[in-house]
Amino acid sequence: KEMLTERSCSLPCHKNCEVSQWTAWSPCSLKCDSVQVRSRRRKVIQQPVGHGARCPPLKQREVCNSQPCYLLEKSEWSECHLHSADCGYGVKTRNKTCRRSDGQLVSPVLCV
Questions:
Q1: 78: Cβ–Cβ under 8 A, 6 or more apart, which residues?
Q2: CB 50 within 8 A of CB 14
């Protein structure tokens, strides 16, 4: 005759991975004319169990907006120009131009 025996066992319950909310983005550098990368992270709260869904990526990276550099170009000062006089106070002039790092002329207010 056969005798049926028993013993306890367990099968894992399937649990999906759970992750935290994203952290804030890391700051971007204020350097001009360079590609900057910022990142953010999140943590695993619950590892997957059994056939539960795997964890999504825990780190994200993205390129920050790169800012162009601006260069203020100044000419030499002119000779002193007097108004209706041979000596005394007068005026010197010079030209100022503002160029973006790619050589494009731009508004002088960007070079302030």
A1: 92, 93, 94
A2: yes
Residue 92: which residues within 8 A CB-CB, separation 6 or more?
77, 78, 79, 80, 81
- Confirm whether pTM is higher than 0.70: no
Strand ranges, E, within the chain: 18-19, 37-41, 44-46, 59-63, 70-74, 96-100, 105-106
How confident is the model over 5-58, as pLDDT tens digits?
Answer: 888 887 778 899 999 999 999 988 667 767 788 899 999 999 998 889 999 999
**Tokens encoding 78:** 């002119």
Of 91, 97, 90, 95, the closest CA to residue 76 belongs to 95
Comparing CA positions, the residue from 24, 13, 17, 14 lying closest to residue 44 is 17
Alpha-carbon distance of 93 to 79, in angstroms, equals: 8
